[in-house]
Design a protein that fits this description.
It is a single chain. The protein is of the alpha/beta class. The chain has a single domain, classed as 4-Layer Sandwich (Metallo-beta-lactamase, Chain A), CATH 3.60.15.10. Helix content is 24%, strand content 22%. It contains 7 helices and 12 strands. The strands form 2 sheets. It has a 7-stranded mixed β-sheet, with helices on one face. A 5-stranded mixed β-sheet has the order 8-9-10-11-12, with no helix packed on it. It is globular, with a radius of gyration of 16 Å. The protein binds zinc ion (ZN). Zinc ion binds at residues 24, 72, 74-75, 183, 229-230.
Length: 247
């Protein structure tokens, strides 16, 4: 199996596990009530999601719900595939539900990627993600609007961050200690050389100006751990990461 690095933050009564793969990340929130998944990788990573749960001493039967930061195939696809046999609900920001159901698709496609497809990093990335099902247009037909996720295992708190997609949401966990930032604010991506806090470029972002506005608002949070949708975990002041990303 491909690389599957898991970093665990212990909040006392709950644990947050960032699952980091070469292409995308997802998060497992775990406490005595069970597990909440945040995102679930590409369609071809459904087995890796199950494996990541086993590695933290759990399994799919303990999952109470899944949350989507947004409905791009690299975050939704694994959950859509698991969905054929799952028994848990999948929630997204109310503004993202129709996207998750694939009533529309707000995602990079062949025509938007074509201008950068000659770059070696992009070519390598494309070869990898095609294998993982990037072209799969399957949605989650019964995705539901997120109401109050704080009743779920891990007690996540939604932080609406529109821009990357119009209903993108980040989540605070561990009483605000860590921010799961999805693709609003990342720390690396296979298509770019740059490492560290950054925003994805216009090819992958629905509305860059709106995303920058959402990211700027994250300065006010007290979180000291960043768990992004792509790239490794970062520890430090969120305001510093925001400044670096928007510089
Ligand atoms: Zn992504």
């Amino acid at each position: 199996m491909a690389r599957l690095d898991i970093t665990t933050i212990d909040h006392g009564s709950a644990r947050t596990h960032l699952v980091h793969t070469d292409y995308v990340n997802w998060v497992i929130l775990q406490d005595d009530d069970g597990v909440t998944l945040v995102d679930g990788g590409y369609p071809g990573q459904a087995d890796a999601v199950a494996e990541s749960l086993r590695r933290v001493g759990s399994d799919l039967s303990e999952v109470q719900a899944a949350l989507l930061t947004h409905a791009h195939v690299d975050h939704l696809g694994g959950l859509a595939r698991i969905g054929r046999t799952r028994s848990f609900p999948i929630y997204a920001d109310p503004a993202e539900v129709a996207h998750a159901r694939r009533e529309y698709l707000e995602q990079a496609d062949a025509s938007t990627i074509a201008p950068i497809a000659h770059r070696p990093r992009v070519m390598r990335w494309l070869a990898g993600v095609v294998r993982l099902g990037v072209l799969d247009k399957t949605g989650i037909g019964d995705a539901q609007p997120l109401v109050d996720p704080s009743v779920l295992p891990g007690r996540p708190v939604a932080v609406p961050t529109p821009g990357h997609t119009r209903g993108h949401s980040a989540f605070l966990v561990g009483d605000g200690e860590a921010l799961i930032s999805g693709d609003a604010l990342i720390s690396g991506h296979p298509t770019v050389k740059r490492r560290g806090p950054q925003c994805l470029g216009h090819v992958f972002t629905h509305d860059e100006a709106a995303n920058a506005e959402s990211v700027a608002a994250l300065r006010d949070l007290d979180a000291v751990i960043l768990m992004p949708g792509h790239g490794p975990m970062l520890c430090g002041r969120l305001s510093t990461f925001v400044d670096q990303a928007l510089a």
